[in-house]
Amino acid sequence: MKVALAQLDIAWEDKQENQKRCCVLLEEAKKQCADFILFPEMTLTGFSMNTSTYAENLQDSPSITFFQQKAIQYQMAIGFGLMIKNGEKAENHCMIVDETGKIITDYTKIHPFSYGTESKFYSGGEHVTSCTIKGIPVSPLICYDLRFPEIFQACSVHSHVITIIANWPTPRRCHWISLLKARAIENQCYILGVNRCGNGDGLEYSGDSMIIDPYGKIVAMAKEASQTVIVGEIDDSIVTKYRQEFPLKQDRKPSLYRQFY
User: Using one digit for the tens of pLDDT, what is the confidence trace for 148-179?
Assistant: First the structure.
């Protein structure tokens, strides 16, 4: 499967402009024959706490409709982020639609970023999810989730690819790079980390979007902190072969670990 990471320079809280920018990256991914393209967290708004204005209803979301239409137009699966209304708060979602526009997974960010103000405006999810793209099992996670290895272990029981969509600021870029590699190595799976670039709400974002294989090797990485598409191949057989040769998960003791909490 050929995957594309759309390192988007998100225009702050400007959905129409960001749709235009997404279309440019979709065109590039199509030229490179991508089967699946992944956009950053809160794709059309940036990491906004303005949920009263920009959160959408799940049942009639214009953002979902936009990406569904583009998936059909470009005949590729699309992963994207958006905020969805949920009572007095909102939820931070990552959805994946297939080439027919069907929603094949909908993940709610489990760990709102309490170090900032996200937890004041967003409720955390309670479940990991998965889907299958071109026969390969995939699980989506979001940004701050990267710091919590337990949910990666849960996802990688079944999934061979874990995606992380993010708005990860430049001052903590060394954490982003190191943790993405660690999660690939720990879980013996592909990690697709797509981050935004540019500036938004006073923060700078360095991009550093990358595809990492189960051995921790970087398959492809954005070389500059600018809007771009990077493409790489996912070979599902590598995951299966490596896990058979080095059966790491067989030595884990999750029932014992729970006693330590």
Answer: 999 999 999 999 999 999 999 999 999 999 99
Residue with tokens 């279309």: 23
CA distances from 187 to 15, 90, 161, 220 (A): 35, 30, 10, 19
pLDDT, tens digit (0-9, with 9 covering 90-100), for 181-205: 999 999 999 999 999 999 999 999 9
Residue 116 pLDDT exceeds 90 = no
Q: In what order do the strands lie in the sheet with 136-142?
A: 131-133, 136-142, 161-166, 190-195, 210-212, 218-221
Measured between alpha carbons, how far is residue 87 from residues 55, 57, 92, 114, 118 in Å?
Answer: 11, 11, 13, 19, 16
Q: What is the reported pLDDT for 261? A: 85
User: How far is 94 from 138, CA to CA, in rounded Å?
Assistant: 12
Structure tokens at 134: 């071109």
Q: Cα 222 vs. chain centroid, distance in angstroms?
A: 15
Whole-structure pTM value:
0.97
Alpha-carbon distance of 140 to 157, in angstroms, equals 14
Parallel/antiparallel/unpaired status of strands 161-166 and 136-142? parallel
Task: Give 26's contacts (C-beta < 8 A, 6+ positions apart).
Answer: 6, 37, 70, 74, 76, 78
H or E segment at 236? Answer: helix 236-245
The backbone region for 75, taken as left when phi is positive above 0, alpha when psi lies in -120 to 50, beta otherwise, is: left
- What torsion do the CA atoms of 46, 227, 149, 152 make, to the nearest 10 degrees? 100
